[in-house]
Amino acid sequence: MHYFDIVVVGAGLAGSTAARVVAEKGKKVLVVEQHRHIAGHCHDAKNEAGITIHTYGPHIFHTNNKKVWDFVQQFSDFNCYQHHVLSYAEGRFIPFPIHVDTINEIFGTHIPASEVSNFLAEQVQSSKFTNPPRTFRDAIVAQVGEKLYELFFENYTRKQWGRDPSLLSAEVAARIPVRANRDGRYFSDPYQGIPSRGYTAMVQAMLEHPNISVLLGANWFELKNGLNAPLTIFTGELDKFFDFKHGKLEYRSLKLVLKTFNKEHYQSASVINYPNDYDWTRITEYKYFLDEQSPHTTVCFEYPKPEGEPYYIVMTKENIARREHYMREVETLEKTGRWLFLGRLAEYKYYNMDQVIAAALQKVGTI
Ligand code: UDP
């Protein structure tokens, strides 16, 4: 067995960023990945129609962190894709997130952007919620009132998380902006785009370094006793690492159903949300992301489910409290200098891609 300074568990964005940073500092790194591919949940690949499919559902890169943007640019060019979403409500496709056009569509008004704040304040005033808001429901109602909440958020959230929105943390609501202006983009970060050759190629470039070795299809839990590296960076599920000693943390999963059609386009936006109708939450038409030209198109229907590949952490009181028990153990281990926990699964945090990279750069930067 070769000698490695550092073992990284997981070849997703957290693990690959960490591996690259330490490899550049001269450390010999072994990355152990249980799947037979790199790039974790941002893995993508072209299908038989020549369209790049995100294996684990749509990933759109956006950040306001210049350090993160500069970091990823080293490994890939990005196109200038700006994400726009429609929401299917009341039998129509409405621009989402909520901004001036959404309001005028729903209420049949013609108010200018300058009146949106007042309009929403009136909606909020006639609504019931607890202030300051502690739950997902109240956090949304406090911004847009009950009518818009019920139309766009309540049922989508029930489908996505399989529970009442009042049982979810207000933090989840902070992901979705409400805008008193004309900006209809899903994200307003200054840096946005999709890696021109895909996420897998970007992560491949990150891992291409003489100090990095990658072992695919390997279960670290089975190998760990034979790998005595001075430092292990773990990016897998937090509760599993500790053999579930404080109980199981919930991770929400998805069933993804892909369909290819013999026509140029299936829908008029890359992503359409379905808050109230059907069992899926959203449909993604992948060719929009890289503006791929093809007489065919492939779309992906997302059906949330409780078990399976862990996609999302679930921000309920119980899970957040349980996380605290695990994080105390993590702190103790990290203090020894022999362990680091990184990423959405290992920190049990609803990170976006850029936040994962930022956390990796920050935590690993001092090694
Ligand atoms: N959400 C909603 N309606 C929508 C879009 C999002 O109620 O049309 C809520 C839902 O609870 C969702 C959360 O906002 O889980 C975060 O949405 P985001 O688009 O960030 O979800 P992700 O892309 O992480 O699945």
Could you please describe the fold and organization of this structure?
It is a single chain. By secondary structure, the chain is α/β, with parallel strands linked by helices. It folds into two domains: 6-81 and 191-246 and 315-364, NAD(P)-binding Rossmann-like Domain (Rossmann fold); 98-175, no CATH class. Helices cover 32% and strands 19% of the residues. It has helices at 13-24, 66-73, 100-107, 116-125, 136-161, 170-173, 199-207, 220-223, 238-241, 317-335, 353-364, and strands at 6-9, 29-32, 44-46, 52-54, 61-63, 85-89, 92-96, 191-193, 212-215, 231-234, 251-261, 271-273, 282-285, 297-305, 312-313, 339-341. α4 (116-125) crosses α5 (136-161). 42% of the residues are buried. The mean pLDDT is 97. The site of uridine-5'-diphosphate (UDP) has 12 residues, from α5.
Task: Provide a compact summary of the structure.
This protein is of the alpha/beta class.
Strands, helices and their partners?
Layout: E1 6-9, H1 13-24, E2 29-32, E3 44-46, E4 52-54, E5 61-63, H2 66-73, E6 85-89, E7 92-96, H3 100-107, H4 116-125, H5 136-161, H6 170-173, E8 191-193, H7 199-207, E9 212-215, H8 220-223, E10 231-234, H9 238-241, E11 251-261, E12 271-273, E13 282-285, E14 297-305, E15 312-313, H10 317-335, E16 339-341, H11 353-364
Parallel strand pairs: 1-2, 1-10, 2-9, 6-12, 10-16
Antiparallel strand pairs: 3-4, 5-8, 6-7, 11-14, 11-15, 12-13, 13-14
Helix pairs in contact: 1-11, 4-5
The chain binds uridine-5'-diphosphate.
Uridine-5'-diphosphate is lined by residues 87, 96, 152-153, 156-157, 160, 172, 175-176, 273, 275.
